[in-house]
């Protein structure tokens, strides 16, 4: 048998072998498992909470059950990163308009100043959809506990006044990721992560 014929037979054998191995791989179901990097980790379960919204009505963790939501901590008189964060949140909300059930929650860390009326005016200034975006105020101790013990950001002495993190929460009330609210690349990751959670 010529060298050329042997070469062709060798190639054919290699192709058949690879096809057989691929078939076994598919039958095993291994190909259906998503890569580990594509699965958003469950970081922390949020505790129960209830604060007062800009509509001057209570809003609790139970009210957000079954919805994917994004939270941040801001205050309306902030001269630092808060306005940029709120503009970023508005941009994320616009990009996720396809999902009207996705909610946005901004908690004030200056409840003495940020009454429901003040928060409502602040939301209007940034074009917030009141059906999807909730600005919360309430007792300072409750806010501080939620920030430090619930969302795991900030500290006892400085309850996230300077935090720029957006916190992604799933339908079960579990934190699934943290994203810098002033970083375009991380905001893109956040939008992609919401798409992912909506499929769960």
Overview of the structural elements:
The chain is an alpha+beta fold and about 200 residues long. It has 2 domains: about 5-35; about 40-195, Glutaredoxin. Helices cover about 35% and strands about 20% of the residues. The chain has 5 helices and 8 strands. Strands 1-8-7-4-5-6-2-3 form an 8-stranded mixed beta sheet, with helices on both faces. The radius of gyration is 24 Å and the shape is globular. About 30% of the residues are buried.
CATH-defined superfamily of the largest domain: Glutaredoxin
Radius of gyration: 24 Å
Query: What's the helix count?
Result: 5
- Helix content, binned percent: 25-40%
| Envelope shape | globular
Give the spatial strand order of the biggest sheet. Answer: 1-8-7-4-5-6-2-3
Query: What's the overall average pLDDT, rounded?
Result: 83
Order of helices and strands: HEEEEHEHEHEEH
Name given to the CATH architecture of the largest domain: 3-Layer(aba) Sandwich
Which topology of the largest domain does CATH recognise? Glutaredoxin
> Which structural class best describes the helix and strand composition?
alpha+beta
* Number of separate structural domains: 2
- Report the count of strand segments: 8
Give the SSE map.
Blueprint: H1 3-27, E1 44-45, E2 50-53, E3 58-60, E4 69-74, H2 82-95, E5 103-108, H3 116-125, E6 133-137, H4 140-150, E7 165-169, E8 174-180, H5 184-197
Parallel strand pairs: 4-5, 5-6
Antiparallel strand pairs: 1-8, 2-3, 2-6, 4-7, 7-8
Based on the model shown, name its key terms.
200 residues; alpha+beta; Glutaredoxin; eight-stranded mixed β-sheet; 8 strands; 19% strand; globular
